[in-house]
Structure formats: C-alpha cells, structure tokens
Amino acid sequence: MPRYTASPLAEHSLALITGLQTPEGAYPASPSFSAYAGYCWFRDGAFIADGVSAAGEAASAERFFDWCAGVLRARADHIRWIVAETAAGRPPTGSRMLPARFTFDGRDGTDEWWDFQLDGYGTWLWALVEHGRRHGTDLSPWRDAVELTVDYLVASWQRPCYDWWEEHSEHVHVSTLACVAAGLGAAADAGLLDQAREADTRAAADGIRSLVVAEGVQDGHLLKWLGSTAVDGSLAAALAPLGFVEPGSGLGAATIDLLERHLTVDGGMHRYLGDTFFGGGQWPLLSCFLGLAQLAAGDRDRAAELYEWAASTATAELALPEQVDRHLIAPRMKQEWVDRWGPVATPLLWSHAMLLRLGAALDARPALLVTELVQEGPAR
Ligand code: BGC
Fold first, then answer.
1. Residue 1's pLDDT band (boundaries 50, 70, 90)?
2. Is 372 a known active-site residue?
3. Rounded mean pLDDT of 282-303?
C-alpha cells in the first residue's frame, strides 16, 4: 500500500490539479491569487505535469504538453526570427523574447511582468521526456514543438534573464542553466532530433556544464548565479529531479549541506537569504525539492522529514500555500505584499505537485523494514 501517494492530502492534490486544469490543458498557477489568476507558467506547469505524471495521471500531463506545443507553434515564426537575429549578432531585447507565462488560451499577458525567463523552456522539455520514459509514450507528436524549443535555447542559453523568482535579470542563474541543460540533454537523448540539431543540442548542454563548473561553483557547491557567492533554494532541483548534478557527488553533497545549513529551518526552506517577498517565509515546494535531492543522495529519513514539513503547511481545507510565515526573514515586509496582492497564494498548484512528486519518489523507495531484513538476511 503506497504510504505517501494514497494519503488524503495527496489524493486531494491530484484532484485539485486535474480539476483546475483548463480545457486548453493549462494549469493555473493559483486560481484565486490576484497576481497569478488567469495565467499558466511554463516553469510551474512543467513541474506540475511531472508531479501528476509521477502520480499516474498521464493524460493530464499530456494535455499540458499539448498546451505548451500550441503556445510554441503559434510563435514558430517569431522563434525563427529570434534564432536568426541572434545568429546574425543582433540578439533581440528581453521584451522580444518568449514570456514566462501565458493566458490559458495561449496569449501573451497584457500586464507588466518580469517575463524573460529561460528556465521553463528547458523544464518543459525535460518533463516531456521524463514522462515519455515513465509511461512509454511515443513523443513524436510533440517533435516540432521540441525542435522549436531546442533551437530557441541553443541560441539563447548564455543570456542573462530573470530567475525562478522573476528577479535579477542582469545575471546568468545556475538553476536556470540546470533547467536548460536538463531539457537539452533530455531532448537529445529522446531521439527526436535530426543529427545536426542533436549535435548542436549536446554541444550546448556540454557548454552549460563547463560554464557552471568554471563560474557557478565555489568552495565545492553550486552558486545562485555565475560569479555570486550566495546559494538559492532552487538549486536543489539541479540535483533532483533534474539530475544536472549527481546528488551523491561531492558537488551534490556540498550543495545539499549548504542549502540545509543556510536556508532550512526545521524542514522549511527559504528561497534565499535576503528574501523579502511576503516577509521571506518558507516554501513547501522547496522543501520537496530538497527532499528529492536528499532521497536521491541516499538520506531517506531526511527526505521523509521534509515531506512531513511540507504536508504540515496544508490548511484545514488541505490547500498548500506558496509559503508560510513560521520563520520570516524580513517580518516587517510582509504587510506591504499583503496590501499589494492580498494573502499568500493558496492553493498554489506547484506546491501540491511537488508534494505528489516527492511522495511518489518516497513510495518508490520504501525503507527496508526490520522484518524484511530478518527474513531476507543482509544485502549481498
Ligand atoms: C514565483 C515564481 C512562480 C510564480 C507563479 C512567483 O511568485 O516567484 O517562481 O512561477 O510565482 O507561481
């Protein structure tokens, strides 16, 4: 009997996500939060699709991939223009690049947003290929959209852009690079690309790795952006589920260690030191990413603790928030955000999806029971 994926909270999470998925296949980031209502992000959506795919809802994930493909196909000429201009030495300004989020019917938003973000385009590729592996799905219906994405990323990955938190567009962010490299590597391995494109894709993924080793690592751990000295909670994803860095390697271990020591209080993880958004609370989705990294590195007990902490943030109605204020970095900043945007986004679908994803990973790697050890004897 699965312990984590069969819990009332997990069942509610799956029903919430699939129930809110729009007829077009988009996943609303949060149905009620003023600043997010009406929009689907490539980043949130790709991790949500990965979560529901791992929890067995293959059809929902595929409807999301169809939505992504529709968004990309509708912009095929624009993407080719970006690629051609970049090749000609005239990279378009950030406002002409693809946005981070779209309306459910696939249009660009009309309100101001910190839109130029590359990570989601890598993450959707990665999630699609993971899904294909997990369920044995033929990915050829998405081939043209994969090609467009690969061309866009191969041309653009070196550019500074906004990060996962839609901040610091002047930097090249290591977790953004991890998403892009994971997506490019997955697309190349999936056998969907012609030979020349596959070679360019692998070269870009290798280039990203070399750059991160040269400029995105200090004292043996990953950094928030190239040349920075700080870390960021999103780096946990570079280890797992993205596998950009081997979780059991020295680099993986040192990164986990720093994320635990600098950003985690109890099982709750902050985004980064200095965060002031809603006072800079703890994000259950980040605790789940760290849990995935810990599990992949072999620490199942810590992964289970991080899961329990994330689950403990659910409201009485089983809604998981974007963040909780149990331990605020900048308590005096909270009210300013409440006045601006209303209470913290709740439910946040990405939080629910990460709980599903970590739950599925924990269920797939059950702890050995003492009775099993006695019956089977020690491992050979
Ligand atoms: C976060 C993004 C997220 C968006 C929608 C923002 O506050 O910084 O990472 O994609 O909310 O959930």
1. low
2. no
3. 98
pLDDT digits (tens, 9 = 90+) for 63-121: 999 999 999 999 999 999 999 999 999 999 999 999 999 999 999 999 899 999 999 99
Q: Is 166 a residue of the active site?
A: yes
Task: Take residue 347 and report the two structure tokens written for it.
Answer: 């439910």
With the most atoms of ligand 1 within 8 angstroms of its CB, the residue from 124, 166, 320 to mutate is: 166
Q: How does the average pLDDT of the chain come out, rounded?
A: 96
- Cβ–ligand 1 distance for 352 under 6 Å, the answer no
pLDDT at 368: 60
52 membership: H or E segment, kind and range:
helix 42-54
What tokens were used for 258? 């720093």
Q: Is the CB of 16 under 6 A from ligand 1?
A: no
Partner residues linked to 279 by β-bridges: none
CB atoms within 10 A of CB 274: 10
Domain boundaries, given as residue ranges, for the chain = 4-374
What is the third-level CATH fold of 4-374? Glycosyltransferase (1.50.10)
pLDDT of residue 366: 83
**Ligand 1 in contact with 341 (CB < 6 A)?**
no
Instruction: Band the pLDDT of 230: cuts 50, 70, 90.
Output: very high
Ligand 1 lined by 285 (C-beta under 6 Å): no
Please state the three-class secondary structure of 183-244 as a single string.
HHHHHHHCCCCCHHHHHHHHHHHHHHHHHHHHHCEECCEECCECCCCCCCCCHHHHHCCCCC
Q: For residue 375, report the distance from its CA to the centre of ligand 1, in Å.
A: 48
- How many residues in total does the chain contain? 380
